[in-house]
Amino acid sequence: MKKILCVVLLCCSGQLFASPIRAVDLGVIGLASHDLFQWDSEIEQNVENGRFDLSTIFDYAGGSRILQGGNPKNSENAPVFTVTQHLVDFYLGHKQTLLYTGRYSEVEAYTAARQATVAHFIAMIDASYRRMMNKAMRNTGLNGTVNHQEQAAMRALHDVLPGQLTVHHNFSRASLAVTDYMQAQVSLSIEEQIQAIAFYDGEYDPAYHHIFIPHFSEPYWVNLEEVDAEFVHQQAGMDFDNMLWELKIYQFFYPAANLIDFTRFGHHLETLFSKGICHINQDQTNNLWISETINCH
């Protein structure tokens, strides 16, 4: 009887703990994915550089959209928008402080401020990674090119995307539809960012099956789960349904297990994030923005 009880408690352990995942983690990991990947479906290639150097903000459109957060994708939902704007403000404040000293040129201030912002971003990624994976991120970089299997593993994390977030208006509470483009550029408060998000369950929130895209020429609807499944199958040669099933089972073994080691695709996430912090670019040139104090091999 005791053995049966122990098994039941182990299998149901995921139900005994509150989810560690916060709304801010969705923003941080979402922006991190944009910094790693920019999938061009026409040429079927990733056109991002696979490094956490905030190129998605600073280098998009030749750097002309830094104040707007760079790539418009960074403003597609409130969590990512909030984190993006936080980093832009961090950069602008740091740069202005350096310029006020009178000891830095515009270029020097830009360089130092971007490097500081990237270091801040990597620290944010490390904290969110721990909560979402239940394991510490590797502190050494991996010199390599990001691949389709790693992008497929990231897409599986869409499992935790919520359809609604709670926001506060004066003394009342309201719901924010995360997929509603009209509410995409809502800046979340600290209290709103630290709200808990439902844990992995192997299912997409229904809101992501009908996402309205207000394209200027012809608006259309997107089923994110179908898009992800197609990429995972065609580009990565992996079984998306099985990946979601593993996440469904994983919830019952948390916190005793971590996502990286429990799932068969988790190791792709570990190598992906190690590549992200590497100061050597995929073409083997040096990445000016990521600190060389992070060992990379």
What does it look like?
The protein has 297 residues and is mainly α. The protein has 11 helices and 6 strands. The strands form 3 sheets. It has a two-stranded antiparallel sheet. Strands 3-4 form a two-stranded antiparallel sheet. Helix 2 packs across helix 4 and helix 6 crosses helix 11. It is globular, with a radius of gyration of 20 Å. The protein starts with a helix and ends in a 21-residue tail after the last helix. 37% of the residues are buried. The N terminus is likely disordered.
In short:
The chain is mainly α and about 300 residues long.
> Please, what is the oligomeric state?
single chain
Number of helices: 11
Number-wise, the strands total 6
Question: Segments where pLDDT lies below 50 for 5+ residues?
Answer: 1-14
Shape: globular
Side by side, the strands of the main sheet go: 1-2
- Helical content, roughly? 40-55%
Helices and strands, in order, run as HHEEHHHHEEHEEHHHH
Question: Whole-number radius of gyration?
Answer: 20 Å
Quote the distance from N terminus to C terminus.
51 Å
- Secondary-structure class: mainly alpha
Main β sheet profile: 2 strands, antiparallel
Q: Beta-strand percentage?
A: 5-15%
The average pLDDT is: 93
